[in-house]
Fold this sequence. Notes:
With 228 residues, the protein is an alpha+beta fold.
Amino acid sequence: MNRHLRYTLLTPLAVASVALSPALAHAASAEQASDAAAAAPLAPACKLDNGSSASEYDITLTGFTPNQKVKIRGPENINTSVDQQGSFTEQDVKKGTYHVEFGGDKNHKNRQSVNCTKPARVTPVDISDVDITSASTTPAVDVDCSVAQSVTFKATLTGTGTGNTKVTWFSNTKSSTPTVKFTAPTTETTFVTKSAPRTAGGPAPTVSVRVAVGDASDSMQFTLKCKP
């Protein structure tokens, strides 16, 4: 009698276990998929960046099997192994076209190869023209000219190439030489300066500026619109 009762009590537990199995199976499947995604190796890649001189590159390998032997082929040949993260870096090698050989057996069967990507070619910046296109205060009119007001000037640089260039601004009260990232054919730059306070009974303050980039320059004179 006691044995029969024991079986009866175990039966609901067995049913609950069967009912939970699909949920547990789904959780286990999701965990396995997550582990597989985390373990999936990156695709082997080789990247060339500009080195410390105009005639050199830096080589970076990523995504290889940890500690794998690789052969870098190009103007310079390098036989090495990647680290435990599947990466390798070599600085200041001769410029040129490179590729990486890896895998396979000693007879080169099933050997793989990946080409090294070169950095984008950068054209030196050459500014041919600069124009001050606008000047403004906030608000645009009826400002309190008895106190110094901020005046914003905008200029457009015109030229060729892509890269950083220095722009020199001058005003009655301030000078500045910001570095502007220029992208051909035109790029805008701004300059904020202060007006001089208006003297009692005097005319509206005027702000004069000049902008220069190399041999290109422009100037503007802006008069504030004062409130009565």
